[in-house]
Every structure is written in structure tokens, then in C-alpha cells.
């Protein structure tokens, strides 16, 4: 079957092109197998990222027929006999062929302070043991902690594609993962980023980030819930200024 | 040097979910437009019976039926698509259990039905003519 691959070799061309390859159709093959076959057997100059081949590492995300997919989880038989067109993830600068620059994404993740923050003086000494949590408290944030940073949600988000200042789905979901953790006290600190214009309020709720998420993290849900709690904060501060959050 | 791909203005035509999203956003124009029309009717009412009758006469025009039918379809699409996503925003727990999404969305539909029934009763049941 035909696999068309996005090529961009900065030392050779200023504009990207597409190159077509014929690969054997194998029911058990995923798109990543086809790309690896091309690289190993036909054209060794292709550059792409991959690692675990089992939907855990999040490295092999690419646009497959214009939809962001983990190529290790997209079977050829889903597309056969149509041809497959593979492109680098939308919304990110292309470094080479199917490899994108991830710097913007990584800096957004750190922007939300993705670690447990305790108020000063309220840190539990190590000898007192761990912070206990009920199953219900764990369930509050567990879904958001399943993210594998594959960036498919960013590639599916037209808001991010049009304005890369948008904090974006995975980073906001990650912020919510800590905001909803009963051990954490850093929500107000994160609000400055999450509730800013480039944060949740930039989201227009297209919902495709959740549709393409391979781990059912539901970043769209995380963003809408963050909008709701930010709005509640606003009205609480307006109506009860004496009870201002610390 | 990295290559930055431009987003075409037609991005919303490239995939069905994007197209449906834009349709959902545009239906809010119909909602706002009809709110404007209702405000106009209230304004006409404040000007007295002749002005109000002139405004309601517009409703009997064939174009009004067409516009109302189109408007109703757009508002239905708007309402249904938004009601269906409410469980993403509203997450409640009953004890240890999360309230199922179908219950959250269902509550909105029930509220919609109850409100519609109330309006129908006010308009039809009490024998008041509008």
C-alpha cells in the first residue's frame, strides 16, 4: 500500500515536499511499522521519533491522514486500501521530516508548576510519613495524571495552531492534576497562569483534544472545570471580599 | 532551520469535528438574533397596542415562518450540542461514586422539557391569546 511521507530537509530544501513509498500491507502492522520498514529497507534518510511501540512513551505522535495519532496504535488496516499520508504534528515547528520542535510544549508544562506545593511551614517532616489519601481523593485527579506528553492534544487544537501563546490542553490538565490533589496547596499560585488570558480563557471548547487523547485524560474537561472554578473564585471574591483566598 | 507551517483560513473545513464546532459557534448568532427579536417585541409592547399589533403582524408573513423554522433548527442544534457537553464541566459525586454523565446531561434535558411545558401551559393552557 502507498504511504506518503512529509519530507523537510533544511539543508536541501526551503519548502517541505511529500515522498511516496510502497510498503507491503500486513494486517498486524501499525503505521509506525510501515515508517520503520521504509527507513530500514527503502530510504534511510527519513527522520522520525519513536521508542516503546506500545502507547506508553508518547514519542511517535504524528498526523495520519490529518488526524493526530500515536503511530504505534494506528493500524494499516484502518486505512487500507486508501493511501496513508504521514505528517509531523500540527502546530509545532518542523525540525526535520516528521520530527517537531518540542521546546514550546515543555516550557508550557513547567509554567504550571507541576509538582506538589505546600504552604510555607505546612510541609510534613519526613519522619511523620506520607500524606494519606482516600480512593475518592485519588480518583479526583488520577485521570489527569495519565498523560504521556504525546502532544496529540496540541496538534488537534486549532486555538493552539492559530496562537501558540495558548497554554494548551496537556499543560492545563497537568495543572488540574495538581490542583485537584488533596495533598497540594498551590492552586492560587497556578491560577496566575491557568486563569490568565492565554490560559483557560483562550479555549473555545472545540473538544478535539479529548477526542484524540490516547489515554482518555480528557483535557477539554479539565479546562472547562478550571474555567468553572475560576469563575466561582471571581464571584466569591466580588461578593465576599472579606473571605479573600490566601 | 525549523519550518513553520501556516494554518490555512479554511482549517475548519478540513475535518468534520472542526466544521461542527464552527456550526455550533455560529448558531449562537441565531440565539442572539432571536433574543434581539423578543426584545423588539417588548419594546413594541411598551409603545402601546397599535405598535405591538404591527410587530406581531410581521409574524404572519410567510418569510417569518421560514425564518422561525431555520431559527428553531439552529437553536435546537445549539442547545443539544451544549447540553451534551455539560458533563465535562459539571462533575459531582454521590458518596464515593461519580454521578454518571447521562444523569447530568439528562437533568438539563428534563429542565428544558419542564420549562417548555410551563411556557406551553401559560400560553395554551390558561386560554390566554398572544
UniProtKB/TrEMBL annotation, chain B:
Keyword terms: Cell membrane, Membrane, Transmembrane, Transmembrane helix
Keyword Membrane attached: yes
Membrane-spanning segments: 21-45, 65-87, 99-124
Protein name per its UniProtKB record: Fumarate reductase subunit C
Organism name: marine metagenome
Record lineage: unclassified sequences, metagenomes, ecological metagenomes
Entry's Gene Ontology cellular component terms: membrane
Pfam family, one: Fumarate_red_C
Amino acid at each position: 500500500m502507498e504511504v506518503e511521507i512529509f519530507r523537510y530537509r533544511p539543508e536541501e530544501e526551503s519548502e517541505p515536499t511529500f515522498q511516496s513509498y510502497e510498503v507491503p500491507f500486513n494486517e498486524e502492522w501499525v503505521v509506525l511499522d510501515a515508517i520503520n520498514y521504509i527507513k530500514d529497507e527503502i530510504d534511510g534518510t527519513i527522520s522520525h521519533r519513536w521508542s516503546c511501540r506500545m502507547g506508553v512513551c508518547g514519542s511517535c505522535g504524528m498526523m495520519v491522514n490529518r488526524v493526530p495519532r500515536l503511530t504505534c496504535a494506528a493500524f494499516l488496516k484502518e486505512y487500507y486500501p486508501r493511501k496513508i499520508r504521514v505528517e509531523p504534528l500540527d502546530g509545532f515547528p518542523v525540525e526535520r521530516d516528521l520530527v517537531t520542535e518540542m521546546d514550546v510544549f515543555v516550557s508550557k508544562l513547567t509554567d504550571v508548576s507541576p509538582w506538589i506545593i505546600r504552604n510555607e511551614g505546612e510541609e510534613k517532616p519526613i519522619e511523620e510519613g506520607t500524606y494519606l489519601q482516600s480512593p475518592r481523593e485519588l480518583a479526583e485527579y488520577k485521570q489527569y495524571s495519565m498523560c504521556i506528553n504525546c502532544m496529540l492534544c496540541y496538534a488537534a487544537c486549532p486555538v493552539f495552531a492559530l496562537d501558540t501563546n495558548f497554554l494548551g490542553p496537556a499543560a492545563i490538565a497537568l495543572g488540574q492534576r495538581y490542583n485537584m490533589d488533596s495533598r497540594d496547596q498551590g492552586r492560587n499560585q497556578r491560577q496566575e497562569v491557568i486563569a490568565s488570558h492565554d490560559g483557560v480563557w483562550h479555549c473555545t471548547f472545540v473538544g478535539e483534544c479529548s477526542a484524540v487523547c490516547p489515554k482518555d485524560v480528557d483535557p477539554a474537561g479539565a479546562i472547562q472545570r478550571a474555567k468553572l472554578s475560576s469563575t466561582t473564585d471571581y464571584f466569591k471574591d466580588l461578593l465576599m471580599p472579606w473571605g479573600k483566598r490566601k | 532551520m525549523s519550518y513553520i507551517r501556516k494554518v490555512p483560513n479554511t482549517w475548519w473545513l478540513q475535518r468534520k469535528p472542526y466544521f461542527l464546532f464552527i456550526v455550533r459557534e455560529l448558531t449562537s448568532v441565531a440565539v442572539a438574533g432571536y433574543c434581539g427579536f423578543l426584545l423588539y417585541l417588548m419594546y413594541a409592547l411598551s409603545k402601546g397596542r397599535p405598535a405591538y399589533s404591527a410587530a406581531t403582524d410581521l409574524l404572519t408573513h410567510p418569510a417569518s415562518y421560514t425564518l422561525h423554522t431555520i431559527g428553531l433548527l439552529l437553536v435546537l442544534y445549539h442547545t443539544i450540542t451544549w447540553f451534551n457537553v455539560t458533563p465535562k464541566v459539571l462533575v459531582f459525586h454521590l458518596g464515593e461514586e461519580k454521578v454518571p454523565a447521562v444523569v447530568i446531561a439528562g437533568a438539563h434535558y428534563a429542565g428544558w422539557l419542564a420549562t417548555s411545558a410551563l411556557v406551553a401551559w401559560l400560553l395554551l393552557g390558561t386560554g390566554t391569546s398572544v
